[in-house]
Amino acid sequence: MPPLGSSPVYFGNFLVTSQVFHKTTYSFALVNVKPLLPGHVLVSPLRPARRLSDLNHAEITDLFLTVQQVGRMVERVYGASSLNIAIQDGPAAGQSIPHLHTHIIPRQRADLDEQGGSDAIYGMLEGEDGDVGRHLWESSSNRPKFPAVDDSTRKPRTESEMSEEAQKLAQEMTRQHL
Asked: Percent helix, strand, coil in the chain (nearest 5)?
């Protein structure tokens, strides 16, 4: 059962209703199929706008207020001391799904020291690790089942795992002082 009702929510062409943990008039927040770090979530407009410049005033205001609210909650729930907030605005910037989305990634001091330091997150976002579209496609039940060629330790999560996290975060959003 989706945590926020039964109206379908799409992220690009992907039905993500069960991954959504927060909805506003113009935006939604969802858990990530293959988070770069624990608590890595996305905030996106409900309307499938491709670029930031495609949003109207009400949508952009709502999007950034939602990013702020979700960021506070994620920081608290995951014990972070900082956040990376990133938008890959268009394909040349690394956007892999033609639906605007904001990455919110909770951070802790020295969390990526083994990968080269805190700035390693940018390479992760731009590389295969951050390719949300590919990971959604790989986890989709509608795609042909070919053997996965992914020998990294980060594996796409199941629909059940993402739904469980979405329900937990939806509860945390109600505890948040917005």
From this structure: 40, 15, 45
Q: Whole-model pTM?
A: 0.80
Q: Who's near 73: CB < 8 A, 6+ residues apart?
A: 169, 172, 173, 176
Q: How confident is the model at residue 155 (pLDDT cuts 50, 70, 90)?
A: confident
Listed in sequence order, the residues at least 6 apart from 27 whose beta carbon sits closer than 8 Å to its beta carbon are 43, 44, 45, 46, 59, 62, 63, 66
Question: Does 103 participate in catalysis according to the annotation?
Answer: no
Active-site position among 22, 40, 99, 101:
101
Asked if pLDDT for residue 141 goes beyond 60, the answer is no
More confidently predicted of 135 and 61 = 61
